[in-house]
Design brief:
There is one protein chain. By secondary structure, the protein is mainly alpha-helical. It folds into 2 domains: about 10-55; about 65-145. Helices cover about 60% and strands about 0% of the residues. The chain has 5 helices and no strands. The protein has helices at about 10-15, 20-60, 70-90, 100-115, 130-135. It starts with 7 loop residues before the first helix and ends in a 21-residue tail after the last helix.
Length: about 160
């Protein structure tokens, strides 16, 4: 083969000792593996940042001075889940068996969680509603949308 047709890097490569070439190949593989791991880490961080951005964009502005927007949005999510559990409990009220027990357990645990986290009893005199029915207006619902046969709190 004519020396002028061989690329320069191949001529330099051929002049290197065999052990140096082996070390360079290993170094190249390590760098390639590190680059792949770095790309995976960057993609996970980008995804996590995107999730946080979406959460921030979905936050509802809090009308209560004692509650920041993130916590207010958390409470709205709890009220919505509690309302859905109450509707499901009313729907399965006369159903015997596991379905009604499961609906009651779901409503009861969500009701206790709401009382613990979002009830206005934690912020007396600040205008934060105590009952989940009073929160329904923030979801675009009225008090009449709460199932009549389901109490608003677990201790009622």
């Amino acid at each position: 083969m004519d020396e002028s047709t061989v690329p320069r890097w191949q001529r330099v490569w051929a002049q290197l000792p065999r052990e140096v070439r082996g070390q360079l190949v290993k170094l190249l593989l390590v760098c390639l593996l590190f680059g792949i791991l770095l790309l995976m880490y960057a993609s996970v961080m980008l995804f996590a940042g995107g999730v946080r951005l979406v959460q921030w964009l979905q936050e509802q502005p809090s009308p209560y001075a004692v509650m920041d927007d993130r916590y207010f949005t958390h409470c709205l999510d709890q009220v919505e889940a509690l309302h859905q559990a109450a509707v499901e409990l009313q729907r399965r009220e006369n159903t015997p068996g596991v379905a009604s027990d499961s609906a009651y357990a779901s409503w009861h645990s969500r009701s206790l969680r709401f009382e613990r986290d979002c009830s206005g009893r934690h912020w007396p005199g600040q205008g934060v509603p105590e009952s989940p029915v009073d929160w329904l207006s923030h979801l675009g619902l009225t008090a009449q949308d709460w199932p009549a046969s389901v109490p608003t709190r677990a201790d009622e």
